[in-house]
Amino acid sequence: VKEVANLSLVSSACDVVSAAYASTKESHPCLRSVCDAAEQGVQSVTEAMASCVQPVLATLEPHVTAVSECAAKGLDQLGEKLPLLPKPVEQILCDTKELLSSRVAEVKEAVSS
To answer: Which of 4, 25, 98, 108 has a CA-to-CA distance to 35 between 20 and 30 Å?
Structure first.
């Protein structure tokens, strides 16, 4: 999960959603109250569940480790097949603009000739 969250595209998307959430809370006092209550509820449930789940996680730790290793290998393979995945968003945008510009230039040349 950490590796996926650290991918620039995922991280940027999370940043955008987080900023929109914060902006909405700031702009709408009624929603702020609802969001604050929901956040407190989630935090309380998380704290309560942590103590209950800990023994189960200890038992499942070898299985979780195996799944984690498998997922990491899958993510590495995905990164090889999609080389833009680990790139910073700014680089992806720049590369996309360059690609589109070159394609448009090719089309213009083909039409003019």
So the answer is: 4
